[in-house]
Amino acid sequence: MAAFDDFIIAIEEGIQQRDLQKLTFSNYRGSIPELENVYVKLVEIKRELMLSFVYRYKTKDITKNFALSDYLAEFLRLTEFKGFRSLNLNRGKEILFLQRNKKGDWHERKEQGLIQNQVSLQHDHHKERKLNDLSKKYLQSLNLTDASGKVYKNAQDKWKQINHYIELLSTSLKELPAERKVQVVDMGSGKGYLTFALYDYLRYTLNRDVQVTGVEYRKDLVEFCNQVAQEASFDDLHFVEGSIVDYQAEEKMDVLIALHACDTATDDAIFKGIQDEAALIVVAPCCHKQVRRELEKSKLSNDLDFMTQYGIFLERHAEMLTDSIRALILNYYGYDTKVMQFISDQHTPKNVMIVAQKKTIKPDAQDRVLKKLDSLKQYFGLEYQHLERLCGLEKVTR
Ligand SMILES: C[S@@+](CC[C@H](N)C(=O)[O-])C[C@H]1O[C@@H](n2cnc3c(N)ncnc32)[C@H](O)[C@@H]1O
After folding, report:
1. Cys-Cys with 245: which of 55, 181, 268, 366 at CB 3.0–4.6 Å?
2. Rg of the chain's alpha carbons, rounded to an integer?
3. Cα of 101 to ligand 1 centre, how many Å?
4. 104 in the Ramachandran plot: left (φ > 0), alpha (ψ -120 to 50) or beta?
5. Taking CB atoms and a 6 Å cutoff, what residues make up the pocket around ligand 1?
6. In the chain, what are the domain boundaries?
7. Of 380, 372, 278, whose CA–CA distance to 329 is shortest?
8. Which secondary structure element, helix H or strand E, spans residue 328, and what is its range?
9. Of 263, 295, 308, 271, nearest to 377 (Cα)?
10. Using CA atoms, how far apart are residues 334 and 328, in angstroms rounded to an integer?
11. Where would I find the Methyltransferase domain in this sequence (predicted)?
């Protein structure tokens, strides 16, 4: 048993020295159906160092976190005679292999590793794979990958968009509270590509306790997405049928998402986020018809007629004006806002994403926002903007 005991000592050292990069169990000979591997890494949850065990089955991953006082029992269970026969412990500077032969004896082998760093539990210094398993069932059900995890040719753009989306949000998502279940609502979730990816990233890459709800008024899409979620065993991902404006969240929202919801539906969604004081509000606006109509009315009566007489410039004005006003209103409620390119403009001109993070409300900043809103509306001959109206700021600025 010397090799086996040495291996456990090396795990303990890896925990103490915080250089346990990954412990992998493979070559399973047990009776749990479809279990293929177990991956273990160090994580910090509610300021407590723990070991996160990811059980990889043929079609799903299940994660369980163990306290340092409890993990050994699970380790011994997984390495019973009819269990896993190959283990490898990556401690950066060295990799330790443990193999069991047919007689049941364990043998150990060491290799020099490549990485010298200690494990950082806060920040990943290496490029993190945002969605770390391309063979997941939901990707196949959404027609993004084939059974071997290869992304279909015609799904390459969508796949890039999904990854870019997670990339853009990953820093903000990591700042969400870790000590409780995080509530995420995705309004106008459509076929659910981005909703599923967000759930996958939060639940299985960041190991967060999370409830994700998609809101969508197309019944067929809601039924389809709920079925895919069920088949993938994504137990805390649900889709509900209904309109954004009527949606009543059961729990206070931490994250409000609305991607490509039409026209003022984006305002309805932002308003819900503001009302719930969501920590993060993310929208990718679609069309901007309400402000466009307003600009249309005033286009010949102000000095901007030299531009707004052209349909395409009128459109672009409507977009920039609407989204700048939305960002200003979010500032009014204490949000720091960033506006960034979401999708390459090769694919669509509607490619802006507003990411707003809740900070504190500052009364002097609120005064500045109201004055700015007022002067903007006068300059562009705008009577109102829908979010402004929902928030009751219209009366204040007039
Ligand atoms: C263009 S798709 C975008 C889907 C997804 N968010 C994405 O970006 O891939 C917009 C979806 O929002 C839904 N939708 C638009 N307005 C809505 C509203 N007011 N309430 C509920 N769903 C809405 C539409 O039915 C559609 O499925």
Report:
1. 268
2. 26
3. 56
4. left
5. 188-190, 193-194, 215-218, 221, 243-244, 259-262, 265
6. 2-112, 137-397
7. 372
8. helix 311-332
9. 295
10. 10
11. 157-293
Looking at domain 137-397, its CATH architecture is: 3-Layer(aba) Sandwich (3.40)
Cβ burial of 90 (10 Å; 0-12, 13-18, 19+) is buried
List the 22-28 sheet strands across, edge first: 61-67, 48-57, 35-45, 22-28, 84-90, 94-100, 106-112
Angle at alpha carbon of residue 340, lines to 157 and 336, rounded to 5°: 140
For residue 49, list its beta bridge partners.
Answer: 44
Tell me the pLDDT tens digit for each residue of 166-225. Answer: 988 999 999 998 889 999 999 999 999 999 999 999 998 888 999 999 999 999 999 999
Arithmetic mean of pLDDT over the chain? 88
Q: Which atom of ligand 1 is nearest to the CA of 243?
A: 20
Identify which of 260, 266, 282, 350 to mutate to test ligand 1's pocket (most ligand atoms within 8 A of the CB).
Answer: 260
| Contact between 162 and 131 (Cβ < 8 Å) | yes
Distance 188 CA to ligand 1 centre (A): 3
Question: How many angstroms separate the CA atoms of 167 and 380, rounded?
Answer: 36
Question: Phi, psi at residue 185, to the nearest 5°?
Answer: -125, 130
Categorise residue 18: left if φ over 0, alpha if ψ from -120 to 50, beta otherwise: left
Query: What are the strands, taking DSSP E only, across 359-395?
Result: none
